[in-house]
Amino acid sequence: FAGSSKNPMEQDVESPAIIRQPKLPKQAREDLPKQLAEMDRTKKIQRYVQKDGKCNVHHGNVRETYRYLTDIFTTLVDLKWRFNLFIFVLVYTVTWLFFGFMWWLIAYLRGDLDHIADNQWTPCVNNLNGFVSAFLFSIETETTIGYGYRVITDKCPEGIVLLLVQSVLGSIVNAFMVGCMFVKISQPKKRAETLVFSTNAVISMRDGRLCLMFRVGDLRNSHIVEASIRAKLIKSKQTKEGEFIPLNQTDINVGYNTGDDRLFLVSPLIICHEINQNSPFWEISQAHLAKEELEIVVILEGMVEATGMTCQARSSYVSSEIKWGYRFTPVLTLEDGFYEVDYNSFHDIYETNTPACSAKELADMTNRTRLPLTWSLASKLSQQGLPESEQEGQETKTTPDNQEKSQQTERNGDIANIESESKV
To answer: Which GO terms describe its molecular function (predicted)?
Structure first.
């Protein structure tokens, strides 16, 4: 019995340790799934437009592919550079090989290849003795090099016709391919690389109103002519009839009515959208914004001053990139005889006092603070009263304007009475 017994210390060491999870409070247990779901939702936010302006949309199951061939020029321009260069080389090589084969075929059918050493024989093309020399003659003809060693003779009408056909088709191929390369090189897409947008958008008070703001700038000294800015809200919605509209686009007014959307983009500008009754953010508060799945797409358009071609730069802001209660740090300073822009502070923001409620709630609170003042004046006048003789005199002197003012006072008193009754 003594040999079979174990030391209590050894028994404690050998037994596996059981760690019990602490029991969370009920409120914490209920909030945990919501927090996990919120984290998953934040991770799964899918952009419609990337920060660099690329549209995150892929076209699938396009059956009518022939439509791409009907606009072959645009199709070639839209291809990537490696495919564009490959097609460029391929088209010229195939053209030279095809007409080289035609020159060799004419020489073969006429028997020029059988009379290479015969000085009395007049070939279609002098010094054409095989396919390689025919290929070289095709290159010389289409590129108009003309070394002078291989020359077409006047005793070959079919060769003259082929020379005309190759000259015309060669000019068409040159115009098409060189034009395609020129448009590809001169595309203003790279000009958009020097048009920058702020990393975040902000919401704060400006002139007593809630405003959504973001900043744009141009890094080049050559300016964008006729620059204009637009903004779209991308958010799925469901109609009253139950129809679900994915990625519905809603216009965001950034100064279309006042002309503020047309920019003189010499220095960085802060684009402002006033959140009013016509704004899609009218009923969105700070807490509501954090839960919203939305995206703001901003589009800057204008003509490149150097080339005159239209340029477009795009960016977007998801709900997590819209900072509530912040403003942009100023970047423009006055130096000795000029203004200097500090682009190191272009994306910087600082916190400011901003109400966390929505613009609608802010307007309602502002209106409620005005009503008691009007009602108090009307109530004091009614409580003081006037003598009967003065009242009769006032009635005889009453004008239509005074009647309207008294009616307005009565309405304000009625509104205040309703509010007091509802509080009771």
So the answer is: G-protein activated inward rectifier potassium channel activity
